[in-house]
Amino acid sequence: MRKLMTVAALGGLVAASALAGCGDGGGGSGDSLTLGFSQVGAESGWRTANTKSIQESAKQAGIDLKFSDAQGKQENQIKAIRSFITQRVDVIAFSPVVESGWETVLKEAKDADIPVILTDRAIDSPDKSLYKTFIGSDFVLEGKKAGEWLVKEYEGQDDPVNIAELQGTPGAAPANDRKAGFADVIKAEPKFKVIASQTGDFTRTGGKQVMETFLKAHPDIDVLYAHNDDMGLGAIEAIEAAGKKPGTDIKIITVDAVHDGMQALADGKINYIVECSPLLGPQLMDLAKKVNAGEEVPQRVLTEETTFTQDQAQEALPDRKY
Ligand code: GZL
To answer: Ligand 1 test: best mutation among 142, 145, 276, most atoms within 8 Å of CB?
Structure first.
């Protein structure tokens, strides 16, 4: 509607073409809302489920979705956002692959009067006027939940606990925050020592390769904390290839709770999973419609999520949506 008013102000001819149903002057077809979405890539089971949720929800909401996969590169996301601006989409949404470097392109969107919604991952800019809302998890809390389980698991034991950590993509909000939340909890007990910490880039391959190097350098690893299930699953392959029992010789904590992670948890190869829901599609579409209509939306929309032990995974698996 906002765009139709602008088009109409440009003169009868243009307004006539708009009224003739040639679209609202935006990139949309007819009067449906056009949403430009830039996705991080396809690096993990979580990402696949997130993409599915967004694409299916757009269809159900009657929203014309222009979807771009950045293959993990910030420059591709910036290009996609500029393309959405040129196409005059109604709303832009994206999951920022890393936290910094977004001010310039988001100012261009703001100058073009196209509202932006952040999904999944946050940006570190203090300028909150660059986006209308951020819908996603509290990654610091997820890291804390992982740490709290470990503290409970080793309660009453004084021996040193050697921890290996597989970090997510360098500079990504979930990697920075899951590391910080976990470290903040375990620092209370000197027995917990992070003896190795390196990025596996949120992928299975990365998790397997880095875990292989960890195992060669540190025969005495007691615990693995992986920032997502996929790196944990890759690490399990390396642990088994080294003749050790994942979940027993090396306790494993991961984040996400995607199907394959939950199966490994139920099978006893992972000990605890902190859920991070990828099912952001329905709420994103609702927010996009509200933002397009000029309605007020909360600056922050927190996603609901829980945690799973091995017993809880057995119970939850049959009903899992991802
Ligand atoms: C978290 C999301 C992370 C997942 C990973 O919201 O950004 O990226 O934890 C994914 O599996 O790759």
So the answer is: 276
The two tokens of residue 177 are: 């925050």
d(CA 226, CA 204): 11
d(CA 216, CA 213): 5
CA-to-CA distance for 26 and 215, rounded, in angstroms?
55
How confident is the model at residue 13, as a pLDDT? 44
In this prediction, residue 22 carries a pLDDT of: 35
Q: How far, in Å, from the CA of 243 to the mean position of ligand 1?
A: 29
Domain 32-137+278-304 is of which CATH architecture?
A: 3-Layer(aba) Sandwich (3.40)
Q: 174: Cβ below 6 Å to ligand 1? A: yes
CATH fold, domain 139-276, is: Rossmann fold (3.40.50)
Angstrom distances, CA of residue 307 to CA of 27, 133, 144, 162, 256: 41, 26, 12, 23, 9
Sequence-distant (6+) residues with CB within 8 A of 138 are 177, 302
Pull the structure tokens for residue 116: 């932006």
CA of 156 from ligand 1 middle (Å) equals 33
Contact 162, 221 (CB under 8 A): yes
Domain boundaries, the chain: 32-137+278-304, 139-276
Alpha helices in the chain (DSSP H): 2-9, 12-19, 45-61, 74-86, 103-111, 139-153, 173-186, 204-217, 229-241, 259-266, 281-292, 310-316
- 96 exposed, middle or buried (CB, 10 Å; 0-12, 13-18, 19+)? buried
Residue 92 forms beta bridges with which residues?
A: 36, 116
pLDDT along the chain (322 residues), means of 10: 48 42 42 94 98 98 98 98 98 98 98 98 96 98 98 97 98 98 97 98 98 97 98 98 98 98 98 98 98 97 96 94 86
Q: Tokens 């932006």 appear where?
A: 116
